[in-house]
Design goal:
The protein is an all-alpha fold. It folds into two domains: about 45 residues; about 220 residues, MetI-like fold, CATH 1.10.3720.10.
Amino acid sequence: MSTSWEVSARQLERLAYRRRQDRRRTSIALVSTVVVLVGAWLLVTSSPGWDRVQETYFDWDDAVASLPAIAQAFVTNIKAFLIAEVLILALAMLVAVVRVVPSAWMAPLKVVATVYTDVFRGTPTLLIVLLIGFGVPTLGLQGTPTDPFWLGVIALTLSYGAYVAEVIRAGILSVHPSQWASGRALGLSYAKTLRYVVLPQALRRVTPPLLNDFVSLQKDTALLSAIGVLEALRQANIYSSRDFVFTPMVVAAVFFIAATIPLARFTDWLSLRAARRQSGAA
């Protein structure tokens, strides 16, 4: 004898009510957003200085003329972002693990890791880029890079590595001690418990804040222009200095926005999914 589960009429009514509420909230949000945007647009375009602002910042001919060069230079930003992201994760993981391992012989490394995170988190990223970009070549050490691009990548790695290391360390410390005990009870060593039991849980928990850091990293690749790297911001600045207009700057900003918004929305989605899992809704 087989039994089939059916949704009750009461539950169907609840689901229909929730769908109506969701549609209502979505409609209200859409209409209010459109009204606000249209109102802001009318306010700006009706201001006395709009013609001058449009000519300086939103000239179509200047945008078209500068677009190809800025697009080509933006590839450098993407390249720096992708390389630095991998290096940052490796450095941050190393620093975080060193700081959480309870081993007496690693005390000197713990001191170095702590000083590193304190110093580089407290120093503005632009200042680090300038110090690395101009300071390392001045040392004249054998084998040190002299290419501004790689010096900039190193600077971004050192700066963001300190932030990401603290995020990962917080994730490791957030794992309940019973997980460590369970791993050791199964006969795993401390290193294997950390690798197979603790780190997967810790990284899953801190994925949203890590992605937020990488959103900021994508924007901060523009700081490499301070040491002479021909990226999108510097290319836009060349056009602006030549023609005394700022439309190329707006074009460069559009490229950064287009690159960061998808990552930001993906971060929001992960955060929402994590919240639903914790609440038992999904």
